[in-house]
Amino acid sequence: MNSVVIEKKDIDSDKKVILSKEKSKHLLETVKIKSGDSLKITILNEGIGIAVVSSITNESVQLKIESLSKGLSFPITLIIAASRPPTMKKVIEHGTSLGVNEFIIIGADLTEKSYLQSKIYSSGEFNNLTELGISQSVCFFNSPKIQVFKNIFDLPKEIFENKSYILSPYAKKSIIDQELTLESPMNLAIGPERGWSKREVDYFKEKNFLDVSISPSILRVEIATIAMLGLLNTKMKF
Length: 238
Known about the structure:
The longest helix is centred in the C-terminal third of the chain and has 14 residues, at about 220-235. The chain has 5 helices and 11 strands. The protein has 2 domains: about 5-70, CATH 2.40.240.20; about 75-235, Alpha/beta knot.
């Protein structure tokens, strides 16, 4: 836990918050905090800052918020075909830690249809995973959104108004050769474990997605996602 993630609704008028039993236990048993310690905090959709441990009562930790400032926010939308749930958990958590602001999960021609029905997308697990990513980053503070679509042809037309890239190991252009900026929204499309079908690639290209590569190797979905977002991060001026 690099940063303690807090929701604004849990903060009282004195800028104090009592942490959940789970977070309190982690801080007491793993971090071994004590009263008066300063901790990094992230208030979801508000900013990042510092809080002081004001009291510890019955294994419950109370924090007093001392300062708050804006963190980073990247307008990155990750359009990713549904893969096996363990893979998608990694994509969501680590994608959040690398600045994904919205996840669009879609069914693909070459993937199991049942993957789209995973409880990851319809339960609180998505929020738990993004919170882990936010806590890891200590710089991003916005809670990512999620949308789920049956296939790429159901994507809303406004998606295609943004600068967009589709990852392909066969692309002739590399992502690092692009003039990248996060002054405006950006889409990154990554296929399933068996890749996009030809008709899907053709459709993306018709919608002005530029196909790019990050490696001559055929990468696992989670590795491709992390590698692509990592390279994108190195191109940004923070």
